[in-house]
Amino acid sequence: MKKIVLSHNMPLNGFEDYLQGLEVVCPKEPLAKFTREEAEEAIKEASVFICIADFVCDKALMELAPNLEIVGNLGSGFNNVDVDYATQRGIYVLNTPTQVMEPTSEMTIALMLSVCRSVVRYDRDLRREKVCTPTLLFYRDMMVYGKTLGILGFGRIGKSVARKAVGLGMNVIYYDPYRASPEEEEALHATYMPIEQVLANCDVLTLHMPYVPEYHHFMNDQRFALMKDTAYLVNASRGPIVEEKALIKALKTGKIRGAALDVHEFEPNISQEIIDLENIVITPHCCTNIAEIRLNMLGELMQGMAALLDGKVPHNVVNKSLCASK
User: Fold this and answer.
1) Which residues pair with 73 in a beta bridge?
2) Angle, in degrees to the nearest 10, between helices 101-116 and 119-129
3) In the prediction, which pLDDT does 85 show?
4) What gap in Å lies between CA 94 and CA 83, rounded to an integer?
5) How many CB atoms lie within 10 A of CB 143?
6) pLDDT score at 79
7) In the 8-state DSSP scheme, what is residue 85?
8) At CA 243, angle to CA 81 and CA 204, rounded to 5?
């Protein structure tokens, strides 16, 4: 009997058909997470290993599993998995690109509105002062209607953000190394521009590129310098895409007006300098933390796993070069 190991204890009700004939191993307590040592022991006889972005599935872990066929990662990103080594071994890596699209784009819009309209700041001030003190002609905030949203990374999530932003009355400009088709651009009311023009023309910049080596510290002093002083940054992709030191400098000096982050360079820790800033909204990498979303993501992995075990090629294989033989 093949063994499937899950790094976290997640509810498996409703997935019985996918798990039929498989031995399931996971932490005993609900929602618990394997320690590294526990995972090293559990994976030894595994054919399938499923993890979440906060669990590192590296070469050293996979080397302990001679029978490993599939690694599934709950998330669209997969920088926590050593995909190169998995590919060398012939291990398929799966992700969940479709099920994270809407929740991540929805949270992106929530972050944008929360910082542009100071929702969190008003809440914090009102709780402290306990009295409403409206100000006439307040210049600190910005309405998003009629403003320009710049999107860097125009894959599934970036396009979903564009659809929502257009619904809010925003103009959309974008950059992606793979330009969308004219039909997609027309349908999404999106205009392609080089990176420098996106940075210079946007009122809000949102990042949706993958975390790969060339995008480490993509947003640095030089790129912040290209942005409007009245612009805002939103990051719901990966923390190290933004150089935290450069962001703090830009926020403190007024080079940009504000930022909203769901991801952070030094996760799981948040620096005191970030905490002390007034013009920033921070959330704990939680775009997909809702139960219904996580279970939908698990379902996407289960479907991909079942297809692979049946000799088929699912849509969510990351290392597609392995599919040529199927």
Assistant:
1) 51
2) 50
3) 97
4) 10
5) 11
6) 87
7) H
8) 100
In order of 119, 125, 140, 149, 164, the CA distances from 130 in angstroms are 16, 8, 21, 34, 34
pTM of the predicted model, to two decimals?
0.91
Q: Show the tokens assigned to 283.
A: 């959330």
Give catalytic residues, as residue numbers: 238, 267, 285
CA 78, 281, 151: angle at the middle one, nearest 5? 55
Nearest to 94 by CA among 324, 321, 300, 310: 300
Q: Which residue has the tokens 């905490």?
A: 275
Q: Tell me where in the chain the CATH 3.40.50.720 domain(s) lie.
A: 2-99+290-325, 101-282
Going by the DSSP 8-state scheme, the letter that residue 179 receives in this structure is P
Residue 110 tokens, joined: 């929530």
Helices (DSSP H) in 43-139: which residue ranges? 59-62, 83-89, 101-116, 119-129
Read off the pLDDT of residues 19-33 as tens digits, 9 standing for 90 and up. Answer: 999 999 999 998 899
pLDDT for the residue numbered 325: 61
Is residue 207 classed exposed, middle or buried when 0-12, 13-18 and 19+ CB atoms within 10 A define those classes? buried
Query: How many other CB atoms are there within 10 angstroms of residue 205's CB atom?
Result: 28
297, 100 contact by CB (below 8 A): yes
Question: Angle between the 101-116 and 156-167 helix axes, to the nearest 10 degrees?
Answer: 50
CATH of domain 2-99+290-325: 3.40.50.720
* Burial class of 185 by CB neighbour count within 10 A (0 to 12, 13 to 18, 19+): middle
Q: Is 87 helix (H, G, I), strand (E, B) or coil?
A: helix
Residue 128 pLDDT level (bands cut at 50, 70, 90): very high
- The residue-averaged pLDDT of 55-69 equals 96
Helix H or strand E encompassing 293: helix 291-309
Provide the terminal-to-terminal Cα distance of the chain, rounded to the nearest Å.
23
Beta 171-175 vs 70-74: how paired, if at all?
unpaired
Given 3.40.50.720, 3.90.1150.10, 2.40.30.270, 3.40.1440.60, which CATH number is that of 101-282?
3.40.50.720
